[in-house]
Amino acid sequence: MSPRAAAHPQESTVASTIRIPAKLRKRIAADAERCGRSFDAQVIALLRRHYGEDVDIAPGPDVILALAVASLADTSPSDRELLTRRFAAIRPD
Fold it and tell me: Is the pTM of this model over 0.70?
């Protein structure tokens, strides 16, 4: 973490969607390719370099759910029931 970020810790994190115009997207993509990064990694690098903050891109809900399901792949049915019982209790009808 940069000294600037350490001096000004954030109390909360807010996820945001950023819409990038096609022309700017092409410029960032070309820069990312030159640097050997993905587009998303380049956006993160630019934000970190400019602002000195610890930023990241959160995966979408579909990826988060897929990771959660995959994390249960090697559990027995009885263990899975114990782990997910709380979710069934709060599931909206």
Answer: no
